[in-house]
Design a protein that fits this description.
111 residues; alpha+beta; 5-stranded mixed beta sheet; 5 strands; 28% helix
Amino acid sequence: MGLAGVDFIKIDVEGFELFVLQGAQRILRIHEPAVLCEVTDVSRERYGSSAHDVFDLLYDIGYHSYVWQNRNFVPRSAQLSGLNNYFFLHRSRPYSVEDLGAPGPSAGSRF
């Protein structure tokens, strides 16, 4: 297809997140794209994997998890609840809002 790389992956697969990420490990390791993923524990009941399994897999590859709050990436903490959408950003790559296709601070946020 002539693509030079993968910069961003969005995953919303209703409980199959771990399976998608397991299949994408080569891409994640080579290209280190930003990942926006809906993570819930619904998969534990249906498929035997948990939200922790998703976080563990990505952490093992070198990703950190963030949430989008007040137009900034905020590191995910155990205290956050009610949130299902997380940004996973690789520790080796600097990211800005503009890198992810969001408008800058003066343009208003689409998130």
